[in-house]
């Protein structure tokens, strides 16, 4: 395991941006549905886990490409 910064390649940056856009779209969709009905604590946990998933995906892209 490395704790050093891994500079992504141009291909990795493009892949990461593609997924970032998808995560952002899903995040917005979840927030929009939350405005239509009250959601329990699970709503905030869902958004936290979505953010966490995006971080782990970026790590996987830079380490395993």
Task: Explain what you see.
Helices cover 77% and strands 0% of the residues. It has 65 residues and is mostly helical. The chain has one domain. α1 runs antiparallel to α2.
Shape: elongated
Helix content, binned percent: over 70%
Termini separation (Å)?
15 Å
Strand content: under 5%
Count the E strands.
0
**What structural class do you assign from the helix and strand content?**
mainly alpha
By oligomeric state, this entry counts as: single chain
CA radius of gyration: 15 Å
Spans of at least 5 consecutive residues whose pLDDT stays below 50 are none
The chain-level mean pLDDT equals: 88
Tally of individual helices: 2
Total domain units: 1
Topology pattern, helix = H, strand = E? HH
Largest sheet: none
